[in-house]
Design goal:
heterodimer, A: mainly alpha, 3 helical TM bundles of succinate and fumarate reductases, 4 helices, 0% strand, elongated, B: mainly alpha, 74% helix
Chain lengths: 122, 137
């Protein structure tokens, strides 16, 4: 069948091919976030009480800043894939769907900027 | 093959419309799946709110106390509880997905069992969060 088209048997002429990439990205990002959740839960449960000093000391550690930063960035990518899927599944109008997708993208980039400021201000 | 009448009376199964959901029996896995989507969307919408909380908790002692004060209000406790459930459900359903991607538990019986466990585990954990929030321990 692949020989029937006129572009040769090895070239795929259909599909945007981002399905597999996004599918994989969603899994990889999920694993990173799950690990971060476990780290935070363990540190939180083994720490004493929840007060400002211990909280800020925790977020002041460089390794934790980097871990938080990475997790947030990965989270925004994960959210992008998931929310785009929702728009693609339920919004039939192309104009509305593209508008919602753009809005989601801008919204997430804004959130990413805010997150960076919060993490690196300490 | 020739009887058109018979052909026309056969029911058609196309994509289910939202209004047909009520009389469509959803298997447990379908309930987990739609809740996975709803919880994810809820968490997406609450992102700026959660970032704002993190921001004020790290700003200063005063802002930290203000945040604690704000969260002691019963309505904000309910919001926190709802978001905790959303996170827990999304987490558990996500882990189920990852396990199934490794071709573990794909048969009908184990898939149903894992779907039930996702619902039960996330509700139990959410109940623990509720007890903690409302000061039972």
């Amino acid at each position: 069948m692949a020989n029937d088209n006129n572009v040769g048997p090895k070239r795929l002429v259909v599909g945007a091919h981002y399905g597999m990439k996004d599918w994989l990205a969603q899994r990889v990002t999920a694993v990173v976030m799950a690990l971060y959740t476990v780290i935070v839960l363990i540190s939180f449960l083994t720490a004493g009480g929840f007060n400002y000093e211990s909280w800020i000391a925790f977020f002041g550690m460089t390794w934790f800043k980097i871990a938080t930063f990475t997790t947030f960035m990965v989270l925004f990518y994960h959210v992008w894939v998931g929310v785009r899927d929702i728009w693609m599944d339920y919004v039939k109008s192309v104009a509305l769907r593209l508008t919602l997708q753009m809005a989601t993208m801008l919204w997430l980039i804004g959130c990413a900027g805010y997150a960076v400021r919060i993490i690196w201000r300490i | 093959m020739s009887d058109d009448v018979n052909k026309k009376s056969r029911p058609e199964f196309r994509n289910i419309h939202v209004f047909e959901l009520m009389n469509y029996r959803m298997p447990l896995a379908a309930i987990v799946s739609i809740l996975h989507r709803i919880s994810g969307f809820l968490l997406f919408l609450s992102l700026p709110f959660l970032l704002r909380l993190l921001d004020s908790s790290l700003q200063s002692q005063d802002a930290f106390d203000g945040m604690k004060e704000c969260l002691s209000n019963p309505i904000s406790k309910l919001v926190v509880l709802a978001l905790s459930w959303a996170y827990l459900h999304h987490f558990c359903a996500g882990v189920r997905h990852l396990v199934m991607d490794m071709h573990i538990g794909l048969d009908k019986d184990s898939a149903r069992k894992s779907a039930a466990s996702v619902l039960v585990v996330s509700l139990i954990l959410a109940a623990l969060v509720a007890l903690k929030l409302f000061g039972a321990f």
